Each structure stands twice: as C-alpha cells, then as structure tokens.
Amino acid sequence: MKKIHLYLAFIFCTIVLFTGCYPTGDKRINENEISNYVSNANEPNDSIPSKEITSFSETSGKIDLELKNVKVSLELPDYAENSVNQISAEMREWNEEKLKSIFFNSEQALSYSEYENRYANIKCHSYETEDGRFLSYEPGFIAYYNSQKRRDYSYPMISSSVFSVDMHDTFTAIEFDDFSIAQAKNTVESYLNKLEIDNLSDPIVYSITAKDANKYFDSFGEITDKHGNPITKWTEQQQCYILIYPFQYDNIEFSITRENYILAIITKDDLIELTCSNLVSSSITDENMISVQYDAEKALNMIIDKYEKIIIDNPINIVECKLSYTKKGNSSSLLQQYTPVWEFTLKSEYDDIGTRMSQIYVDVQNGEIY
To answer: Phi, psi (5° rounding) for residue 352?
Structure first.
C-alpha cells in the first residue's frame, strides 16, 4: 500500500490550492474575438453552430449550457451599476498584550520567538504555552492553534483542502446533536469581537464528521506521521465545524481563495485553530471609482471562449460567478491595492484525484483574465 507522509500530503494540498493564484502577464482577450455564447436574453447566440451546443436551458435566471469543453450551471449576479470602487487598504495591526490576554488568559509561562516576514523591517512574533497552544502574528495575520490536537488528528489535511475540494460532495452537511452551528458561531465570534474584527460576511460552515474525516484520510492511502506511525483515527470527540468568514467592503466580498479570510476549526470541547489571513483595516485608505467595462455576462462568455478554443482532457463546469475584490500584484507593502473582478468557480472531475475546485478572474475594467 502506498505510504504518504502527513507533511507531504499537506504540502501537496497547499500547492494544489495556490498554484496559479497571481497574474503572470497580460491575458486580455480582444473583445471583437469573443463568441457570444450567452446573450442578453440568456439564450444561445445564432452565431454559435448548434452542433457545438449540447444543451441549453434558462429557468428563473439560472443558465444551464453544455458545450464541447465547458458546462455552465449558475446564476449570474444581479449587479446593474456602471461603476465600482477600486480600493487601497493597510494590513491590520495588532496589540501584543491584548492578543496574549485573548488567547492565553494572561498566562505567564510563554516561550517567545520572532523572525523575518514579507514586510520590510517588521518582525513576525510567536508565543507558545507549555501545553502546546501556539500564537503567531504579524500585520494582517494571526494564527492560533492547539498544536498537539491539530497535529495528532491531522486537521490541516482537511482545512488546507477547503478551497480545492468539493466540500459538499466530500463531507456530509449535518448539525451535531451535542454541538450546534449556532454554538460554534457564538464561540468563534466571541474571539472576533474581542479582536474588534467587524468587516465580515456571514460564514461558510462545513461540518466534518468522524466517519467522513476517516474516509477522506483513507483516500490518500496509508498516511503516516514523521515517525512512520499511522495517523490517529477520529472519534466523535474530534468531529468539528470549519467556519470561513470572508472579508467585505461596501457589500462586496474579498476573494477567500486569494488568501483573504478568517478560518476557524472548532469542536465541542476546544478551538482547534483560528487563522486570520491578510486582514485589512476597517478604514479604507483610498477609493478610486472605475467603470465596469466588462459585465458578468461578457466575462462569462470570455471564460467559455478561453476553454472552448483549447484542447483539454477534463471538461470544466462553471458553477458560480460573483463580484469580488482581489489583490493587485504581490506587493510587500503594508498598503495593498484591491481591484474588483468577476470571480468564477470551476469544477473539474479527474480519474485519479476526484473532483477539484478552482477559480478564475476577469477584471471588470480591462477584461484581464487571471
């Protein structure tokens, strides 16, 4: 039986998640070369040969379209504005003593370390208690977790997959009898309130049962830890909720798959992990109103066109479209720029690794795809 070390499996999931996140050059499409697969009336255009379209239907605003390489099954967002803000915001700063008080209840037995990070002349700080609770922070970022439970029960294998795996197909959506979703939200949000984080949308919630977690681990073959020991199977005590809170500004969410989110893992007994990734300050530094040159329909046609004009082994299903903010470039400055894009979620089926989810973006102003 194939052996896969836990650490390597985690790295693999992370690579799958973040490969191709950032633009690698000008990928704009000549507007005159875009085929009009979906018209304003949500009907296939006569310019597309009927033999290219396997099926098309539109019911209550939902588009169902099947072509050679692409299936579409979604509702386009109802955004009728002709303009939207491009924004600049600084990474959120933290008060060290307040963080220690929130996560460690002012315990004194803390080991401390610091190291360089991506921001010039700014250190990343970390603390750890004797019982293995760990806290690391830098501008825009917090990672708190119970090191022993997180490691012993392989929680990162699941949490690192939430953006690349079809979670609804992999894990059963249930509410635990002895620990409700409302209780989980209340506990997590008590931490967020103490941290004074309020620029959030409602959370995405996944319930992870012991049965589903063990089945997921088994799908990798025989997984061992760094000492060669099989990973510990879950019981009901380890089953948890994973909550993902997107940031938002002016009712537009930041793209969580571009590393702007809060993620919490919580069991009925413990907060296993709370991660804040690229959290911006609630006060926006600068706004720049830009025109929406590419609406959701035009952007959808561009994405369909992109995949219909190439040879691919695995057809894609476009299952969601929404207006999101995403970071421009990869600056190491505390001040980051965010631009509005149409964010499309793609679903693909593979024989060896199953269903995988990914995202592709279209800039609303210049039509750049990345």
So the answer is: -90, -35
Evaluate whether 326 touches 361 at the Cβ level (below 8 Å).
yes
DSSP-assigned beta bridge partners for residue 91: 280
Looking at the DSSP bridge assignments, the partners of residue 84 are 290
Query: What is the C-alpha to C-alpha distance for residues 65 and 74, in angstroms, rounded to an integer?
Result: 9
Predicted structure pTM score: 0.85
DSSP letter at 168 equals H
Distance CA 306, CA 16 (A): 21
User: Which are the contacts of 35, defined by CB distance < 8 A and separation ≥ 6?
Assistant: 45, 47, 48, 301, 304, 305, 308
Q: What is the pLDDT of residues 142-175, one digit of tens each?
A: 999 999 899 889 999 999 999 899 998 899 889 9
Angle CA 312–168–174, to nearest 5? 175
Residue 151 is encoded by which pair of tokens? 């490691």
Tokens 């470039």 -> residue: 329
